[in-house]
Write a structure and sequence with these properties.
- By secondary structure, this protein is an all-alpha fold.
- It is globular and about 40 Å long.
């Protein structure tokens, strides 16, 4: 976060429940549900592995949507 501040990059807080609800309709979606949602949205042949990869993609997608609204 310090590096972002030093580079004048805006940092936004996206709660995990917001990200999950945005992509799955369930703010308490499991890792598997998130992986399957990202697989479908991105038209991937396989679910992203490890599950943290799906989380990172989900955050990026949501951040992009938030950015479009501002």
């Amino acid at each position: 976060m310090l590096a972002c501040q030093n580079a004048h990059v805006t940092v936004r807080n996206l709660p995990s429940t917001h990200v999950k609800k945005s992509l799955t309709g369930n703010g308490h979606a499991s890792k598997t549900q998130m992986q399957r949602a990202i697989q479908a949205i991105c038209r991937l042949k396989e679910v992203p592995q490890p599950p943290d990869v799906a989380d990172a993609i989900a955050i990026a997608l949501c951040a992009g949507r938030v950015h479009e609204l501002h």
